[in-house]
Amino acid sequence: MNLVHVIPIARGIARNRLSYFTSKNVVKGSLVSVPLRNKVVPALVIQVEDLRFARSQLRKAKYAVKKIVVLKNRSVLSDAYLKAAESTAIYTASSVGAVFYALIPKVFLDNIDAMPALKNPRLKKGTRTTYIIEAPRLERVAQYAKQIKLELKLNKSVYICVSTREEAQRIGCELAFLNERIFVFHGFIPRKELVSRMEAMLQEKRAVVIVGTGNFLALPRTDIGTIIIERESSGAYKKRSRPFVDIRVFATYLSKYSGARLIIGDDALRIETMYGLTYDQKVKRRSNMPSQFPKKKVVDMRKYKGKTFKVLSLELEKLLMEASGHVFLFTATRGVSSNTICEDCGEVVLCQNCEAPAVLHKGTPENIFVCHNCGESRSAKERCRTCNSWKLKPIGVGIERVVDEVKKNVGDVSVFVISSDHTKTHSRIKKEMKSFMESEGGILIGTEMALNYLEERVDFVAVVSIDALLSVPDPKIFERVYTLLLALISNAKKTFLLQTRQPELSLIQQALDGYTKQFYKDELEERKRFGYPPFTVLIKVSVSGTRLWVAAKMEEIKKQLEDYDFRIYPAFGRTKRDYVLNALIRVSKKSWPNTKLIELLRSLPPNVMIDVEPESVL
Question: Which of 361, 359, 362 is nearest to 349 (CA)?
Answer without folding.
Answer: 359
